[in-house]
Structure formats: C-alpha cells, structure tokens
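Exercise 7 asks you to align residues with tokens for two separate proteins.
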Amino acid sequence: MIGIDIVDINDVLLHPRTWKHMRFIKAKGDRYPEDINPILLYWIVWSAKEAIFKSKRKLKPFDPKLITITFSHDLNFSSKELSGSVKITSNYVMAIAAQESIKPLHKIWMNHQKVYYQKAVRERIIGYFKPLNVKFTVDKNLLPLLSVNEEKKIPISLTHHGNYMGFCIENHKILKC
C-alpha cells in the first residue's frame, strides 16, 4: 500500500483555492497545522488525501471528504493505518502515503511533453530502473504494477500534473541496480 500525488501550483489552469474551499475536501475529524499558508493548505490536504486514496488501490471514486487526516507541524500526516509526508517547493506540492512498514522510493521529473502523461511517466520509469528489465502490467483492478526481470510484480503509484510527473514504489531489494 503506497500512494503519491503531485500538484503543480504554478499551473495556469489550476483554480485558486482559499480557506473557504476547504469545505469541499474537509472530513469530520481532520486536523491541520494552523501556521500553513491558507492558499497552500488546500493543495497540501488535497495531495495528502489523494496519496492515501491511491495507496488503498481500490476501484471507487476519490472523495476527499471520506478520508480523515491528521497533520503534525512538520507536514507529516496519518490516516488510520497509513502515514506520510508532504513536500512543498516553489513549483509543486507532493505527498506520499504508505503503511509504516514500507520504505518508499520516489522520483519526480519535469514533463516537457504536455501530452501523453501516462506514456511519458512510464518511459521515464523504465529508463530510471535500467539495466533492470522492467515492464508495466496491472493487478486485478487494472491498477499499475511494475514487473521486474519477469519475476517480481510490485505495486507502483503514478502521478502527473502540469509540468511534473513521478512515481512511488516500495523500495525492494530487487530494484537496486
């Protein structure tokens, strides 16, 4: 169980959000640090909840109001059996969520193509793990798995938004090249 989400905060198509918009994503019991920029808070909470949602690998619609989340002051968060962290840069907000026992491996890239995000991120991942023979396959819910040397299939979480794309996967020994 691992999930990642990224929001390109400089995307011109991104609708500005304020504290008032939190009502669309706030679950009963959510706890946020009070010292976060209110304009960024929406995207911090959104990306954390989407990372949690992706980590569950279930086929159902994403509804952030159904995910209760608690943040600490250092942008670490927890939700039931999952925990994670948010990274904020001047260009994006990124969240990773996983079970405590999982050590995540992630990578974010600029995407200059602006189209075919799914294909672009998959090509970058294949290149990232060379010389390993990695291919993409899917699980019973048609969610992505990374097949490594045709012997191990590992759940992988993909993300893309605006100028950025990336992945998160459990850091297995087999991925060391």
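Second protein for Exercise 7:
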Amino acid sequence: MFPAADSNSDRRGPASGPFRQVLVGWDGSPDSVAALRTAAAIVGDGPGRVIALAVLPSPQHHEAERDQPGAEAAGNHHAFQTFEATRSAIATASRARISLHTEEGRQVARSLCDHATEHGFDLLVLGRHGGGGILHPRLGHVAEAVARTSRIPVLLVSAG
C-alpha cells in the first residue's frame, strides 16, 4: 500500500528529480547542440536551470592569433551564434531556463569539472566528440577526461 499523495507536493515533472542544475560543455559543435537539447529535456519545465559553459583560450594562447588574425574570434562567434539558435529552437518546446557562460582556461576538462563542483551542479552533460565511427566509437579527449575525473554524474551524448 502506498501513502496518499501530499496535496502540497511539487508536481512539476522531471525537474523535481535529482537533476535540477545541469551544466553543459559548449563549443558550438553538433554534439554540444545535442548535449544542450538533452539537458533541457532533463530539466524540463520545472524550477531547474541549464548553463552552457564555453571554456575559451586563456590570454597566454593569444600568440596564435597573431599568426592567423581573427581565427579564434571567428570560432568563438560561431559558438555564440550556434548557442542562440539552439536556445531559440529549444524555447519553442520547453520553458527550461538556459543561459551561456564563458570562462577562460587552458584545460577545458578541468575547467568544466571545477565549475560544476564549485557551483553546485547536479549533472554534467557533454558531447562525446571523437572519431571512430559506429563500430569503434571513441570519446574525445575532453569527454574522456571529464568522465574520469568529475565528482558529479556525467552524461555523454552524440549528435549522430
């Protein structure tokens, strides 16, 4: 026999589950788009939030920009444009609160794990990247490092 439902209980769906604060590793790739969509679906329409975190190269690596002016800025611009387009598409089907944050860092995996822990996230969602195809799928180096070192649950998704 089950106890009667409490009339004051929160019945908002999936967001009342264990994953209310979800961090997504964001680089504008198709796999990160799939990760953002997945995170929004997990949070649902409840009180949770989804933060996409783009880890940008630290100032020490800007010497390469002198060799190829505008290459880094163009890559960042693409990631921001892709985020806005993806968030707009998700907004038509979900009321999940989604925002993009940026952070400078040299080690993307460490930055993602540290940010997730320091800010109390419940779940970290990443695109798996990597090549290898269907028969021999491989994790990208960032996804593999995060999966090995994260203190919170990690969900890896693929666009294809």
